Each structure stands twice: as C-alpha cells, then as structure tokens.
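FORM 7B: Structural annotation worksheet

SECTION A. Query
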Amino acid sequence: MKTTDGREFIKGRPSKLLSSFLSLAIVAVIAIGTVAVTEFTGAKAPVSYSTPTITETPSETPKTYTATVAATGDLLIHQAIFEAAEQQDGSYDFNEMFQHFKSYVSKADYAVANLETTLAGTELGYKYTGYPCFNSPDAIAEAAKNAGFDMLLTANNHAYDTRLKGMQRTAETLDKLGLDRLGTNRDENEKKYIIKEINNIKIGMVCYTYETDRNEDSVALNGIPLTSEAAELVNAFSYGELDTFYQKMEGHIADMKSDGAEAIMLFIHWGDEYYTKENATQRKIAQKMCDLGVDVIVGGHPHMIQPIDILSSSTDTDHKTVCLYSMGDTLCNIPGSRNGKEAGYALDGVLFNVTFFKDYDGTVSVKEADILPIYCNIYTSVKTGKNNYEIIPLDKNVENWQTTFNLSDTTLKECERSIERTTEIIEDGLKKVNSVLSEGTLENIDETTSK
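SECTION B. Predicted structure
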C-alpha cells in the first residue's frame, strides 16, 4: 500500500526504514533513562562524563610579630609631691609632672609603673600622707593613665599602709579608671597573675613584694602585720622562706602557660634601699626564676638604679633570662645624698623597654632590651613658690635638652651628671644583654661586662 506521498507501508507493520528509526529512538530513550538512574543512585559516572575542577584555597602566609613592654620605677608620692599637685580649688593635678615623659611612655605597646602609695581616699578616715605611710589622691593614677601607662604595680612594702580597706580601694580605683593592676587583689577569687595579649603575643605577668620581718606567723609589710584576709590578697614572699616562694612561682608559671602565656615576666620588689649594686639574695632569686622559666625580671625598691644582666638556666641551657635588678625612682622627693652616694642617685631612674618576638613557627623569645635614662627634676615653681616636680627623659637623640625641656643651667648640669651615673651602672650590662640576645649564647662575652 502506498501513501499519497509515495511512501510504502506493509499492512500491520512499519516499513524497514521506519523500523530502523524506531529502534534507534528506543535505544536512545533507554540510554537516557540509564543515565538518569545512574546520577540518582550515585553509581559510578560513565567515562564520557568530565571530571569537575577543584580550586585549592592558598594557605595564609605565616607572620612574625613584636611586642614592646615598657616599665619604670617608683611613683613614690611624698607629701611635698601631692602638695605641689594641689590646685586652688582643692583638687589635685599631677599631669604636668609627666608632660615631657608622656611621648616616650606612649611609644610602647604596653607600659607599666610601680605605684608606691595607696589610694585610700579620705572617706575611710585617712588623710593624704607621705612617708612613712603613704596615701595619695586618686589623681596620681589618672595622670599615669593620661601619660600612657596601661598597668600599675601594687605589690610593694607600702601596699598595706592604709590597711585592708585602703588596699582594696586602691584596686577598685584602678579598675574604675580602666587601668590594669598587678600584685594585690580585691578578693581571693582573683588570679594572682594576668596574661596580656599584645600584638598577638601572650605575655604572662606576675608581681611580688618582699615581706618585712614577721610578727610570729603573720605576714607584715612596712612593719605592719596583715590580717589573714589581707595576707591572701597580696603577693608577698619571705626572705626566710624562699622555697615557699619558689613553689608558688612554679605554680603560677604552670598556670600562666596553661592559660596560653607564651612568655613570662616577673615584677619584683626586693633588694636593699640606696644601693647601686644588687645583693647576693637578689642574684640567688634571679637565678632560680631563670631556672623556672621566667623570661624577664624587672626589679624595684632600692630607690636607685641597679645593673642589668642576662642569666643562663642551669636546667635548660637554651633558656636565658633578662634581669634588671632595679629601675630606680621615677617620681619622688629624695634630693639628698643616701648611703654615702652623692645627691641625685635617688632621683635617677629608667624607662626599661623589652621587646618580644614571635617567629613564623609561633616561637616567642626576647629580642631586644633598651633603657632610657630619666631624671626627677625638683625645681621651685615661679607661680606658687613651692617645689615642683617633673620627669625629664635624658634622650641622647634630643639635641638641646635645655631648650626642649625648659631647663635652668643648674638643672641641665644635674641632668648631664644623672646620665653619667646611669650609664656607669647600666651600659656594660646592657651591651652584654643585647649581644647575647642577638647571638644566642653567653660564650665569648667580655668578662668585664658582667662585673
């Protein structure tokens, strides 16, 4: 049978051409169905499928970091100092005393000073007083903050001068100002140390003070026995029980490292007043701290600068500890001679800068130590006729101290003599420290630098 267009059909079935076409169509349908099932069931894809392109995300390039911690000595607020800060309206303003020093403090990533007084206010029945029991206006802490300090040390032999309430109010006042504090606590639940993350480097810090002679079994500071409650709130050690101190420090170091500390700093109130050389007990304690893993020791209390040194651990030859035995004073009223030393030694101080370095692999080490000599200038105010006080940075890069800091001829000579004294005490040890830090060894260091 033929169709009108000439195509031929066999009755009851398609022609051969049509049959072949239908067969191919059926195969294609089956194949498509197979592919669909293959994709749905998760079976292995046919060879004809292309392999998807996987783009790898490049790993982040490792970085190095540095963090500089600056520390300075006693803010020893004698009566003459807070009287100089008193304003006509009865308020207090210490900011002018820091005006020349401020820019140097602010350069550090983190700055620390020793608060050698209490902030008990007057509402507890105390008056503002200087030596022998210190209580200062809160404005001294405000001025320290304005000058760029981030933390004040509160563990020293005058921490309990206004007893428990005064010690607690000191801590509360610093907290309200947003300043870190170290050495005394508000309550027994606070940790005895802090860990500061500075430029991606976590530094564990702890502060201790020596005890004065004990009254039987009670802890005493400045000759004042502490209550059992107060004794729990201050970090103090006894020269007669150093093993107990070492055990406490070993525990603190372990806890700080457990909390993530990558380096350890100890701020310590120790030594003999008005000596420009550390004593044997200081050296003994320093070596033990080195053996325990402390990286930097910063000392205070003698009211005079003492040498800087670098120690090698007797238990880990790769470990070194930088130790500045005393920073001297930063703000004080001790103009006369002491212990046979010429007048001026107790007015000398330093801003001690230590730089930590974090390597590509996360290892943290002390990279460099630097010292800026400072001098507490006591002069007569033209406005008030009273003594006034200012901290002079003896920066060798400043061409004309007299013009820059508005110094009299007499004061300029005192500053020149101050930097001579400080250089004599510090220079050789500082060279030794930085030589070892750069070379990584105590070998081949000139013996004269450690004398």
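SECTION C. Observations
The CA atoms of residues 215 and 292 lie 30 Å apart. The longest strand covers residues 364-380.

SECTION D. Sign-off
Analyst initials: ____
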